[in-house]
Amino acid sequence: MNAHYSADPFDATKQLINDFKVVVSDAEALLKATADQGGEAVAAARVKTEASLAAAKAKMADAQAALLVRTRAATRATDEYVHTHPWQSMGAAVGVGLLIGLLVGRR
After folding, report:
1. Which residue of 11, 70, 85, 105 could cross-link 6, Cys pair, CB 3.0 to 4.6 Å?
2. CB-based contact 50:24 (threshold 8 Å)
3. Which residues touch 4 (CB under 8 Å, ≥6 apart)?
4. Per-residue pLDDT tens over the stretch 25-68
5. CA nearest to 28, candidates 56, 1, 6, 67
6. String of b and e for 17-56 (b: at least 16 CB within 10 Å)?
7. CA angle, corner 19, sides to 15 and 22, nearest 5?
8. Which of these, 46, 49, 59, lies nearest to 16 by C-alpha position?
9. Quick one: which of 16, 22, 23, 21 has its CA closest to 1?
10. DSSP string covering the chain, please?
11. Cα R_g (the chain), whole angstroms
């Protein structure tokens, strides 16, 4: 796995979507920059690229919507668990806080 991405699948998905947005934006800029270029091969490539970009944007929107649905479901599940098991949640939070404190204190 690339060190640039987080181990959290939600963070990795968000980063992938952001990276993909940059690629789409760069491709659109390239299409605009070559708009005045002539020739059948260039025109055919532009049409194909525009179709690919439209499909990629649709897939990206679907991925964002799916990520939002999963994030909301995870948030609801966490909220429900914390309300159902408040003492266990407090204990876990204290444990994580102590662990972080120990790790920071070692530096």
Report:
1. 11
2. no
3. 15
4. 878 777 777 777 777 777 777 778 888 888 888 888 888 888 88
5. 56
6. eeebeeebeeeeeeeeeeeeeeeeeeeeeeeeeeeebeee
7. 145
8. 59
9. 16
10. --TTS-SSHHHHHHHHHHHHHHHHHHHHHHHHHTTT--SHHHHHHHHHHHHHHHHHHHHHHHHHHHHHHHHHHHHHHHHHHHHH-HHHHHHHHHHHHHHHHHHHHT-
11. 23
- Tokens 């479901």 map to which residue? 73
Type of residue found at 7: A
More confident residue, 98 or 3: 98
Residue ranges of domains in the chain: 9-105
Residue 66 corresponds to which tokens in the numbers above?
Answer: 């799916």
| Whole-prediction pTM | 0.51
Structure tokens at 91: 């204990």
Can you tell me which residue has the tokens 């444990």?
95
